[in-house]
Structures are given as structure tokens and as C-alpha cells.
Amino acid sequence: MSTLAEQTASARREPPKVSPLNDPRVRGIISQVALLAFVLFLVWGAASNAYENLRAQNIASGFGFLDNQANFALSQALIPYAETDSYGRAFVAGLLNTLLVAAIGIVLASILGVLIGLARLSSNLVVRTLATWYVEVIRNLPLVLQLMFWYTAVLQPLPNPRDSISLFGGEVFLNNRGVTLPKPLFHEGAIWIAGAVLLALAIGFALSRWSKARQMATGQTFPAGLATLGLLVALPVAAFYALGQPISLEHPQLGRFNLTGGLRIIPEFIALLLGLVFYTAGFIAEIVRAGIQAVHRGQSEAAAAVGLRPGLTTRLVVMPQALRVIIPPLTSQFLNLTKNSTLAVAIGYPDLFLVAGTINNQTGQAIEVIAMIMLTYLTLSLATSGFMNWYNQRVALVER
Fold it and tell me: Are strands 247-250 and 183-186 parallel, antiparallel or unpaired?
């Protein structure tokens, strides 16, 4: 028989048996597998239910319907489009309309938001008060209400085409059907003017890089922005005349009952753009104000001590440091503007959402159409976020 000391030593040599369920890693793997199985079960159930419902209604699944004739018109299309074209082409036309209003809206809302954000910090009481009222009013009114205001209260009461308001010496006409502008006509060789613009941008980018490196090395500045602006004007103008003026203008003509010629911008587009720009600018203004206030006041005082004017202090000292605070929430506002464009359905602008809804109503392919909408907006959001994240890394302050 073993003694008590031997039993105690044996117990010390043999570690106690531990159940695998007591291992945190094992429990984590089991819980993740269980969750994955549950999600797959839900997906399988939803897919089976959708399949049975489609079969009961004799609706064929798949995307073959995109080749069928659309049989509906669009009030605006950036590509040639007619009612006899396919659903796929109609979807692309709606997507381009969405991209157009989103791209222009992001640029204009950013400019207006920065100006209002700076006005919120102005030492002038009147400017600061007006900017504050703008932000408080615009941000607290529903966007769809603002769209209806621009469309029904501002644009619709305008006169009929025969009584159009003439602006800029008869070059621009304003009526309840929109704004009519001179239409550019591109002839042979016009593509080279676009090449001149790209060349000016490339040279401007190189000048900016060289100017920054020169300033870091010597402290001397170079007006790269003004030089780039000059190139953007000089090179295309030189190419325009060297190629024999390959771009001409078709001027609108006011007839007895209607306008002929020119480029017409429909009121739905104008109302949607104005609503998105003014609404989003209110949020961007607060982001800019908060970003500037996040920069320590000592930075401005140091800049003033070395003789920098207030404008240069804001542009060269404050804003570069404020960008690291501004860009992340600004990205969200860009995404919101793009997604808020779906409210165009309230005023009849043929954006992606409205066109896809029409396709769904005519074909009954709800699953396929909704999947296309989701994938498109997801792609736009990820592309915008990716670009803004890249830009955020470019402007981030590097600690030494």
C-alpha cells in the first residue's frame, strides 16, 4: 500500500483532466460554427421560400429580363435612350443620372459647407449669425420637404416656355420646364482639347509635388495652384485655336410658342441638386467648424507671431491640421448625399432608384432588381470610402 506522501506526489505529477469545453479557443470555434450554421439555415430558408413563391406566380428567375424592351421613357438620359431600348440600358441610364447628381452635389456641397463653416467662426456678428441660422434651419428640416419646396414652390411657378425669362442677353432661358443653355457641339479634333486638359492637370500635379519638396528643402514657396490654373486655361485655349475651333455652341432660340435648340436642364434635376447641396452643406459646415476648433489656438497665435495673415494662417496652418478631424465624418456625408439621391422619386427625377422601381413594377423580378440596386449602391459607397481613406492617409500628419 502506498503511503500518503506517495499519493500526494502522484497527484502532483498527473495534471487534472480538463474538459475541451473549458478551453476558450474551443468554445469560440464552436460558437462561430453554430452561428454560421444558423445564418446558412436562414439564407436557405429565405431562398427556398422565394423560389416557391416565384414558381407559384410563374415568374422565371434570372437576369434575362434585362434584354427585354423597356417600353417607358426617361425625361433625362446621358446616353442615347428610347422606349424601344432594353431594361438593361434603362438601368444604365438611371445609374448615370445618379452618378451625375452625386458628383456635382458632392463638389458644390463641399464648397458651400466649407464657406458656411468658416462663416460660423467669423468675428463679424452678422455673418456668424446668418451662418448659424442657416445650419440650424436646414439641418432640422426633412430633406424630402426641402426637395418639394424647390420643385413645387420655386421651379413650378415659373412662366411657360413662351414667356421664358431671358438671362445674359438671351443666352439662357428660365421657365417651368427647366433652364435652357447653349449646347456645345463637338466636331472632329475636339478630343485633343480634352487631352490638353489632362496634360495641364498632369503638369499641375508634378508642379505641386515639386513645389512641396522645394518648400520642405529651402522654405521657399511656389504658386503651384495659380500655375495649374493658368495651364488649365492656356493649354485648352491654345489647342482650341490650333485645331480650328472644333467646338461650337448651339444657341437656344425663343419661338412663338416654345424654345428650340440649346441644352435643357430639367427642373427635377435642378430641384434635386439644390436640395441635396443645401441640406448636406449644413452638416459639412458643422464638421468644418468642429475640425477647425479642434486645432489648438496656439497654432494660429504662432502663425500670427511670424507675420502670416489670417487668410494664409487658415489655409496653410489651421486647415491642414483640421483635415485629420474633418475627413472621416466628411466621408459619411458624401455617402449620405449619394444615398439620399434616392428621394428623387418624390419629384420624378429618373435616377437609379426610380428607374429600377419602374423595371420591377413591369417585370415582377423583385429579387433580381433589389439585388442590383443593393450591389450598385454598395459599390458606390465602397468606392467613395476607399478614395476618402486614401486621401485621409495622404493628408495625415506624420510624426517625427
Answer: antiparallel
Give 130: exposed, middle or buried? Use CB within 10 Å, 0-12, 13-18, 19+: middle
pLDDT band at residue 48 under the 50/70/90 scheme: confident
**Against a cut of 0.85, is the pTM above it?**
no
Distance CA 371, CA 62 (A): 11
Q: How many CB atoms lie within 10 A of CB 264?
A: 19
Cell representation of residue 291? 475640425
Cα 232–236–242 angle (5° rounding)? 150
Residue 129 in grid coordinates:
449669425
E-strand stretches of 31-111: none
Choose among 258, 267, 188, 197: nearest CA to 231.
Answer: 197
What value does the mean pLDDT take over residues 262-279? 93
Q: Cell 449669425 belongs to which residue?
A: 129
Residues in Cβ contact with 160 at an 8 Å cutoff, skipping those fewer than 6 apart: 175, 176
Q: Is 91 exposed, middle or buried (0-12, 13-18, 19+ CB in 10 A)?
A: buried
CA distance 118 to 113: 9
- Report the number of secondary-structure helices (H) and strands (E) in the chain: 13, 8
Identify whether the C-beta of residue 274 lies closer than 8 Å to the C-beta of residue 153.
no
Q: How far apart are CA 30 and CA 265, in angstroms?
A: 59
Contacts of 34 (CB under 8 A, 6+ apart): none
* C-alpha to C-alpha distance for 135 and 116, rounded to whole angstroms: 8
Burial letters for 154-182: b for 16+ Cβ neighbours within 10 Å, e otherwise? ebeebeebeebeeeeeeebbbbebbbbbb
**Length reported for the chain:** 400
For the chain, state the CA radius of gyration. 30
The average pLDDT across 80-101 equals: 93
Q: pLDDT value at position 252? A: 87
> How open is the CA angle 91-389-319, to the nearest 5 degrees?
120
